[in-house]
Amino acid sequence: MTLLTVLLQVSNAVGLETLGAALGIGLAAISAGYGIGKIGSSAMEGIARQPESASDIRTNMIISAALIEGVALFAVVVCGFIL
User: Is the pLDDT of residue 6 over 70?
Assistant: First the structure.
């Protein structure tokens, strides 16, 4: 069975809006995890290259991670209201 066949069968059972909301929640969580991981990785590389600017890099990393987390939480709440 292909993925499209499974999705079409599920959409007939629960409705397309529920399927879309569930996919939206999953994509928001996965994207936020990937984005925060990428920020952390880049920050560690930057600190390894220039240890004297570690505090500035760390501060920017925390602010960026918090903004990504906020957007992901907003997306999950909006998709949750759809459910």
Answer: yes
Residue length, the chain? 83
CA angle 77, 3, 69 (to 5 degrees): 25
Q: Please choose, from the candidates 36, 34, 31, 29, the residue with its C-alpha nearest in 3D space to the C-alpha of residue 66.
A: 36
Q: Which two tokens stand for residue 17?
A: 């809006």
C-alpha separations of 82 from 4, 14, 18, 26, 73 in Å: 22, 13, 7, 14, 14
Exposure of 30 in the CB half-sphere (CA atoms within 13 A)? 6
Q: What is the pLDDT of residues 30-46, one digit of tens each?
A: 999 999 999 999 999 99
Instruction: Specify whether the CB–CB gap between 40 and 61 falls below 8 A.
Output: yes
